[in-house]
């Protein structure tokens, strides 16, 4: 009986301290101004701003005070297909105790995210979900987070060949690993920007939650379960049911995402 109690305590402690041990490596992308678009034909307003605010969070105490050398921030014209692909190689530096994070804010398609230099009608310049999953697969990190504030981002959960999306990006990690996709909308829904919030609705509430609003039990940390319970109903409410965030993957409900 005592042995099982100690084992449970150890597992609980490992979940709660997952973000405090090891290093964080993050690739943060936000594209409002596309090379081939104008605001009248599809440019966004706040995606680059949202990306900078995500970096600000990562550099803060709740976000783990991640060093600048472990963050790749690409906004607007910096966020070309080639630059994003190069930035994703950062994940190869992560060890078994580390975590890797991809944040993308911009346009999305059913199987891809759209980089700055997309050529209309040319799929070779799309950032495919398959390529993103490959970058995660090549990382040894125990915790892998993909956060996307993009239309149709829920399609990221679709399986690759015979593997589920979660299996695709956790196969190279050890037992007990966490992989989570925090996606702004279902695979058939748009992701909405808000002038009133001055940002993407999903990212706005995501950051509010991570900075403490989601800490339901006031234990000075925000778990992925708490974050989902905070973000999802607010996004659905603000968008009048047109946008439902998707939290998907293989992870413990007690996975801590911020420490207050």
Automatic annotation (TrEMBL):
Residues 25-250 form the Peptidase C14 caspase domain. GO terms for biological process: proteolysis. Signal peptide: none annotated. GO terms for molecular function: cysteine-type endopeptidase activity. Pfam families: Peptidase_C14 (PF00656). InterPro entries: Caspase-like_dom_sf, EF_Hand_1_Ca_BS, Pept_C14_caspase. This is Caspase family protein. It comes from Larkinella rosea.
